[in-house]
Amino acid sequence: MAYNIVTIVGSIRKQSFSLKIANALAKLAPASLKLDVTTLEGISFFNQDLEAAPPADWLAFREKLQNSNGVLFVTPEYNRSIPGVLKNAIDVASRPYGKSSFIGKPIGIIGNSPGPLGGVSAVKHLQNILPGISGPILGQPEAYLNGVGDAFDDKGELTKESLKGVLQQYLSAFAAFIEKQNG
């Protein structure tokens, strides 16, 4: 059995490193995981006034999460935090109060950056936001991917062998975590 993992890309840029990493993860994933790379372009802004009659895009995103066995966030860091589009998606999925679509879902988080810090502040902010609205968060290994600017060819394929090894190690740990949480 393959566990269905919603892999949320924290950037909406068409050629974002986060999207390239998520696609590489989907290709490298062990047979026990099926990573559904999910971008956030179509999710409208959260507005509590719409909770009584949520837009179709909110309902579809919530249902996708509810039907999953876990969630993997792949995000860049914007201004020492997560991108606004990612925070919006979390707000959409975690509402209405007490009915979060993340509840009970095991969570993985991978930060990335072409710079030296690897998105560490974005990861730490997700680790602060998610408790209380999600299931357990994989604590080890932590993944802060730095220097990803030269990791892909012009077709978006992963070419940096050292990064491939890091992703495979993370996926192995995440697969074991998912198995334990869903077993």
Helix/strand/pairing category: alpha/beta
CATH superfamily: Flavodoxin domain
Q: Roughly what percent helix?
A: 25-40%
User: In total, how many domains does the architecture comprise?
Assistant: 1
> What ranges have pLDDT less than 50 throughout 5 or more consecutive residues?
none
CATH class placement: Alpha Beta
What's the count of strands? 5
Cα gyration radius (Å): 16 Å
How are the strands of the biggest sheet laid out side by side?
2-1-3-4-5
**Gross geometry:** globular
Strand content: 15-25%
By CATH, the topology is Rossmann fold
Give the SSE string: EHEHEHEHEH
Mean pLDDT: 96
The helix tally amounts to: 5
Q: Termini distance?
A: 11 Å
Name given to the CATH architecture: 3-Layer(aba) Sandwich
Q: Major β-sheet, in short?
A: 5 strands, parallel
Overview of this protein structure:
It is built from 5 helices and 5 strands. With 183 residues, it is of the alpha/beta class. The protein has a single domain, classed as 3-Layer(aba) Sandwich (Rossmann fold), CATH 3.40.50. A 5-stranded parallel beta sheet has the order 2-1-3-4-5, sandwiched between helices. The termini are close together.
Descriptive keywords:
183 residues; alpha/beta; Rossmann fold; five-stranded parallel beta sheet; 5 helices
Layout of secondary structure:
Layout (H helix, E strand, L loop, with lengths): L2 E7 L7 H12 L4 E6 L17 H11 L3 E7 L7 H11 L12 E6 L7 H10 L13 E3 L15 H22 L1
Parallel strand pairs: 1-2, 1-3, 3-4, 4-5
Helix pairs in contact: 2-3
